[in-house]
Write a structure and sequence with these properties.
The chain is of the alpha/beta class. About 40% of the residues lie in helices and about 15% in strands. The protein has 15 helices and 13 strands. Strands 2-8-7-6-5-3-4 form a 7-stranded mixed β-sheet. Strand 6 (about 190-195), helix 8 and strand 7 (about 215-220) form a beta-alpha-beta unit. Helix 2 (about 35-50) runs antiparallel to helix 11 (about 270-285) and helix 11 packs across helix 12 (about 290-320). The longest helix is centred in the last third of the chain and has 28 residues, at about 290-320. It starts with 8 loop residues before the first helix and ends with a helix. The relative contact order is 0.17.
């Protein structure tokens, strides 16, 4: 990426219709806004081809649009189309996967999970105890909010069959070394399943470069409709036991692992996500890039640099406010974290802080965000939750200042 190219935030914000509502939307980790290209793709599908896919007329158009959406997301991830399942959510995709691989496991085999992850990549694997599998918990480092390789090494044995972990915490925002941790698991003969949901809106993902076996990503958190993608190496998808109707053969991938099939209109709308990346690329770069992945990587490079600059004042505010406890790293460094910040204010009513922010039209989250084990790892009450301020590349400096002002006002209110 040329050094003199930086993200044009006004161009970007013009692509997202909901940003005109006057709110500072800072709960992006729960689900991002979609650009107009995704809205247009959805409307076009439902207006012109809302029929059963087939080979003639509107049915043929429906098939082509669904395939284009599937192919686009697969290509962006560095995968082939038959290596990616488009399902309703990461929770459901991993649940189905965990059942598909049960025949691989025997009593006494071991599966490693973390106390950091969203439950989507946690609960399904822990339930393998039902068939006699031993589940081991890989505890995160509370100082960094991330996962250490030494802690994983201490758990790996010749009975380890799966290692399930996140690329990035949806609580701490800390980026984990996916490639390094995957290599460590592979050395022990284990298969990895990586939750990349919290990373996908901030970093380009290349599943082949990472050498992951399975990788889950919720597309509604990276500017798309409410569906999710699950990548799997072809040999693993072929070996996994089909979970769809009996007449889908074991070589029918990915459909054999997608009960009920894809959501037609939302899978077709995935092309709008790629169209958005292409529009950002075309606006910022003079030199053409001939493949989707190269364009996606270049655009994410713009996002990373912009987000690091964007959140630096917010990190400075947190560091200068001793009454606020930040979970994870006190840094804006793009190599170490994404702009997802979970905070606690001991002795304060967090719901009141959220409400005061809302009165200023600042939308921040309050929950355990389906990662209660992570909060418990910090000694916090998961039911009380934490406040989460999560930004993406379409947020601007005004959003950040409004968040600071809203939180500061709530703290001053006593």
């Amino acid at each position: 990426m040329p050094a003199d190219v930086s993200l044009d935030i006004e161009f970007v914000r013009a692509q997202f219709p909901p940003l005109a509502d006057g709110w500072a939307f800072l709960e992006n980790a729960g689900g991002s806004y979609v650009p107009g290209s995704v809205i247009d793709s959805t409307v076009a599908y439902m207006s012109e081809s809302q029929v059963q896919p087939g080979i003639v007329g509107a049915s043929k158009l429906a098939s082509e649009r669904i395939a284009a959406g599937q192919n686009g997301i697969a290509t962006a991830l560095g995968a082939e189309a038959d290596e990616v399942i488009i399902g309703p959510s990461t929770s459901m995709n991993v649940y189905v996967l965990s059942h598909a691989v049960r025949p691989w496991l025997r009593p006494g085999d071991e599966v490693i999970v973390t106390n950091l992850d969203h439950e989507a990549n946690n609960t399904p694997w822990r339930r393998l105890e039902e068939i006699g599998v031993t589940v081991k918990e890989w505890c995160f480092n509370p100082d960094t909010g991330g996962l250490d390789s030494d802690a994983l090494s201490a758990l790996l044995t010749d009975r380890t069959r799966f290692v399930c972990f996140s690329a990035c915490s949806n609580i701490t925002g800390t980026i984990n070394d996916v490639a390094g941790l995957t290599a460590l698991a592979h050395e022990a003969g284990a298969v990895v399943c990586v939750d990349a949901v919290a990373l996908g809106s901030h970093r380009a993902i290349d599943v082949k470069a990472l050498d992951v076996d399975f990788l889950a990503c919720s597309i509604y958190k990276l500017y798309g409709p409410h569906v999710a993608a699950l990548y799997g190496k072809r040999e693993h998808f072929l070996r996994a036991k089909g979970q769809n109707h009996y007449f889908f053969g074991e070589d029918t991938i990915p459909l054999k692992l997608n009960p009920g099939g894809v959501n037609h209109e939302f899978t077709a709308a995935l092309k709008g996500v790629i169209d958005y990346f292409d529009s950002v690329y075309a606006y910022h770069f003079m030199t053409p890039a001939n493949d989707v992945q190269a364009r996606v990587r270049a655009v994410y490079g713009l996002f990373e640099d912009f987000e690091e600059r964007l959140v630096t004042p917010f990190v400075d505010y947190l560091e200068s406010t001793p009454s606020i406890r930040l979970l994870g790293l006190m840094t804006a460094d793009k190599t170490r974290r994404v702009p997802t910040f979970s905070i606690d204010v001991p002795g304060k009513d967090l719901a009141a802080i959220q409400a005061m922010a809302a009165a200023r039209q600042v939308n921040i989250g309050l929950s355990h965000f389906y990662a209660p084990r992570a909060l418990e790892g910090y000694g916090l009450d998961a039911e009380r939750g934490v406040l989460r301020i999560s930004m993406v590349h379409y947020n601007n400096a005004d959003d950040v200042q409004r968040a600071i002002a809203a939180i500061d006002e709530a703290l001053s209110a006593g």
